[in-house]
Amino acid sequence: MQQKSEKLSFLLGQGVWVDSENLKPDDNLREVLKHGTLTLGFIGLAECLQALTGKHHGESKRAQKLGLEIIKFLRQKCDEYTKQYQLNFTLIATRQKD
Q1: Is pTM beyond 0.85 here?
Q2: Roughly what angle, to the nearest 10 degrees, separates helices 45-53 and 61-85?
Q3: Three-state SS for 54?
Q4: What gap in Å lies between CA 79 and CA 85, rounded to an integer?
């Protein structure tokens, strides 16, 4: 988290994040990122499981178990990053519209 504010000067200047308008070009982004949430997301778990096991989570207990292990791993990474960086990380899933 060593990114400098100059890299996002337009967004920061628009007040997208609380207190962002007060940052100088060499300031670290940590001070404004702590006010928000950093999100990791995934899409296509069923297709991933089909590629790995030949079935999606609704067709096989084995595929469902693997899917849950994948999601658990991602969630654990978010929790790990939250502790490591003292920032808010979360995990979301999306699905394709039918």
Answers
A1: no
A2: 130
A3: coil
A4: 10
